[in-house]
């Protein structure tokens, strides 16, 4: 089986590609290696992947529709795992167009490639941020998600809608995965764990938003990857008995499905910081800040549906996961 992984040089795409190859799949990875964060980190992940025999890389921008069409035509992909995107909530406040390009134009190009080449299953990353103003916790895929608080979240919700239309019109099986705050080794420099670790090692204060009064459902990257690989061959089927009026929002009369992928164990931001302090054996200096635009106070995933489908849902303890990240960080940046 040949699988396309978009965003293969990214944090999740790197782990994803590695695991798929370990499982015996052939992986074609694409990425435009943009400079949203340190390109050297993307290149280092890629260099490790390129040592693997069953990995083939093409540098490609998913916004370029002709190149994407060419890629799909020259490989017959059995599955597509679409992770390339412009991530980050805060960056979307200042740079909205980057999200329209990568997340909207990029997504339609991937959908078109899947449609014209009869790909058997498209799995793509959505995000917990689609829950926006929702207050009821844990967040369920049966809750309405019509009130995003950032353009990033709006593009992720748009991806789900666009995918539904392709599932309906062209019977393209699509599975959208709402990832909840992913962390782990080789993680992103724009995310809290990386920024805090770096600042603490430099003896600098860390910016703690909403004075630390926030909780996040931190999800370890191996659990994300473990969930995705179990879903590769769980191809959604059209449910003829489904109607809008019955109210199920995560499935459809089309071959379409949405799952939450989160730990289901929200952690207070201050407890997360304590886990970093323990791993580093350094006390953090806190720079207490107000709430940021586009941020939400807390997230918690209801993963019952995921568990019932694949017999697994994320469960790694934050203390363990943070230690894995810190160990990686110290060895990677030892020079
Ligand atoms: N990390 C998280 O906490 C989290 C949470 C929810 C959802 N997600 C989603 O998961 C996916 C992967 O996230 P990540 O944390 O690995 O981010 P990442 O930025 O590390 O990886 C994304 C990769 O996509 C590439 N890319 C971006 N635009 C591209 C384009 N136009 N063409 C080709 N490649 C492009 C980037 O260069 C990058 O290597 C994204 O869709 C993100 O929105 C991540």
TrEMBL record:
Residue spans crossing the bilayer: none
Taxonomy, superkingdom: Bacteria
NAD-dependent epimerase/dehydratase domain: residues covered: 3-234
Cited Pfam families: Epimerase
Sorted UniProt keywords: NAD
Name recorded for this polypeptide: NAD-dependent epimerase
Lineage: Bacteria, Pseudomonadati, Pseudomonadota, Gammaproteobacteria, Enterobacterales
